[in-house]
Predict the structure.
Amino acid sequence: MIDGAILIGAELRQAETRFTSVDPATGETLKPNVSSAGPADVADACALAAAAAPAYAATDPETRAAFLERIADAIAAIGDPLIARAMQETGLPRARLEGERGRTVGQLRLFAQVVRQGDWLDATIDPALPDRQPLPRPDLRRLNLPVGPVAVFGASNFPLAFSVAGGDTASALAAGCPVVVKGHPAHPGTGELVARAVRDAVAAAGLPAGVFSYLPGETNALGEALVADPRIKAVGFTGSRGGGLALMRIAAGREEPIPVYAEMSSINPVILFPAALAARGEALAPAFVQSLTMGAGQFCTNPGLVLGVASPELDRFVEAAGKALSESQPATMLSPGIHASFEKGVDALAGHNAVTQVARGQVGEGVNQAVGALFVTDASAFLADRALGHEVFGSSSIVIRCRDLAEIGTVIASLEGQLTATIQIDDADADAVRGLLPILAERVGRILANGWPTGVEVSHAMVHGGPFPATSDGRTTSVGTAAIYRFLRPVCFQNIPEGLLPEAISDANPWSIARRVDGKREASTR
Ligand SMILES: NC(=O)C1=CN([C@@H]2O[C@H](COP(=O)(O)OP(=O)(O)OC[C@H]3O[C@@H](n4cnc5c(N)ncnc54)[C@H](OP(=O)(O)O)[C@@H]3O)[C@@H](O)[C@H]2O)C=CC1
Ligand SMILES: O=C(O)CCC(=O)C(=O)O
């Protein structure tokens, strides 16, 4: 059911101030109109979250894991109405949204496994050495504890997997943190359906209602108040650089500053190494265009920059990519605002006197349509104007012709932090790659060979992060199970008697988790 409610724990509220979302494919206003959460709602949600935090933090792994699985089941149980509503609110096609739902419930279930297995606790015991000379060592035991209530900002471009019960929420709940979601105003109906599913799961699991709240709204003031609330202890965000920076400033200016894990902007360089380019440059072109135009290019992993050594082979790649792009179909973008910002970015590139437009995609009927765009320029022009390296969110990319591999290295070294770098390589490129890998690793969170950056695997080894401005904290990831560590902090217990120790680091080890004892890892029994 969707009736535009605010969810403060189990309580459903309606506000007098309302807003509406728009079907970006038609421009029509969607019903129902939605409550705009206000300051009192923020305060109540945060108070409830803080009240729930100790009991939720104390849940044993099995209880918490079963809760995450209940959320997954409840989201799956919404069935087609969830997909239908998300299609209306985002313009994304059914297959993409069904896939995204699978990813969303899959990541909740994966986090359930992680919680049960217990490595995230990093339980570490240095037993006392009472006879050590010249001084005895105390008994030291460390584990990770949840940081407390987390504010999550739903992203516009993944209305399920990065939104109300997406990766940030799943990892925060897995860590033992209550979550207060600021819903994205472009998909409030989708958000409410998922929020109600989470609320049902909280009740079914017998957890305190404040473990989850949902605040729909369309004003900066709502997000600002949420991040400023002293009961919030960390923030997860995916969106624009301006939005992420604004929240970081608020968080840093609080009486008690808190971390903001913001994933913001990335152009994801693709490097075409000479042997690969010579062997299969023309074949790479359509695959590149497919990655570029997937989801109207609305991926933070979209390949927005291509680097190669100026050569007839690179020219052939550009020509083939231009041909593939010129045949590509337009696609509805997520919102009028995102479409307008895409058009502005493309117009700026098209009007730049050092940039040549290679191709545009097919123009179609309808509103808010992304028409793909491909440009080319030289490294010297790119290096002279930093604006050419700014993200154009949507299916736009620019090819940079470099003099040689050294100049490719110079361009990479000039880039801001990125989520990904893609290398197209053959065996004969190995030496050249070896030279560039350290420069790449300094700049990005994930380096991938002979593939395309869009489509992030949710797994244990995944890093979906990178130095600023890809994210606000390059030491972390927002996708994959390591995302849980953003919402944990280590606490050491010194000489605390057995009966008073947290279970994970007690001698009894009732959860049977593997621990590091006196520097040695115990075998896992899970
Ligand atoms: N790199 C990436 O992964 C992505 C980049 N983008 C970029 O962001 C642009 C806009 O898209 P959108 O998804 O709406 O992203 P925004 O960053 O504009 O919004 C994301 C969320 O943050 C809130 N917010 C934004 N600015 C502020 C602020 N100053 N203070 C408090 N809260 C704020 C918004 O709420 P409210 O609007 O209610 O204030 C919304 O809930 C795109 O055109 C694209 O350039 C978008 C998605 C992903
Ligand atoms: O490519 C993906 O699957 C994830 C992309 C992403 O994180 C984003 O666009 O915000």
The chain is about 40% helix and 20% strand.
